[in-house]
């Protein structure tokens, strides 16, 4: 099978001087040592438990894998990178229809919708000195989704 050359749509086809870094890469350029990168994903990043969420799940999985790569790249500079995998929350996204909500709640060990302050607490932990040796991790804060 023949290998194809990069197309004009390929990120590798642009000269390095014209490629735009991700916001994470851009922000971490300014830090010489230490810091935190914390991304928020969802339980669908590792488990697409209901029909019709493949595209959403793929983007969340991409966020998680990207963050793990960032953890490897920035670790030597004492910058940690982790993911908080949030679950079904009050507020924010449009609530699912009642049938889907019932199915989602039944897949949660805690059998309830979460609150944004619970995700904020997980983020606060990862940003704290107590998490200085935690990097490349996915912190499940989703009520036990498919546990």
Structure description:
The model is unreliable at 1-11 (pLDDT under 50). The protein has four helices and three strands. A three-stranded parallel sheet has the order 1-2-3, sandwiched between helices. Helix content is 33%, strand content 14%. α2 links the parallel β1 (35-42) and β2. The chain is of the alpha/beta class and 147 residues long. It starts with 22 loop residues before the first helix and ends in a 6-residue tail after the last strand.
Keywords:
4 helices; single chain; 147 residues; disordered N terminus; alpha/beta; 14% strand; three-stranded parallel β-sheet
Outline of the structure:
The chain is α/β, with parallel strands linked by helices. It has four helices and three strands, in the order αβαβααβ.
List the helices and strands and how they pair.
Layout: H1 23-29, E1 35-42, H2 54-74, E2 79-86, H3 98-106, H4 116-127, E3 138-141
Parallel strand pairs: 1-2, 2-3
């Amino acid at each position: 099978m023949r290998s194809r050359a990069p197309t004009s749509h390929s990120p590798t086809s642009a000269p390095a001087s014209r490629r735009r870094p991700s916001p994470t890469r851009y922000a971490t350029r300014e830090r010489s040592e230490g810091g935190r990168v914390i991304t928020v994903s969802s339980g669908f990043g590792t488990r697409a438990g209901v029909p019709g969420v493949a595209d959403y799940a793929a983007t969340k999985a991409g966020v998680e894998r990207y963050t793990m790569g960032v953890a490897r790249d920035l670790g030597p500079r004492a910058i940690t990178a982790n993911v908080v995998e949030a679950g079904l929350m009050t507020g924010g996204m449009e609530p699912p229809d009642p049938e889907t909500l019932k199915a989602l709640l039944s897949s949660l060990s805690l059998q309830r919708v979460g609150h944004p302050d619970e995700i904020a607490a997980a983020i606060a932990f990862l940003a704290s000195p107590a998490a200085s040796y935690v990097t490349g991790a996915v912190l499940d804060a989703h009520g036990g989704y498919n546990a």
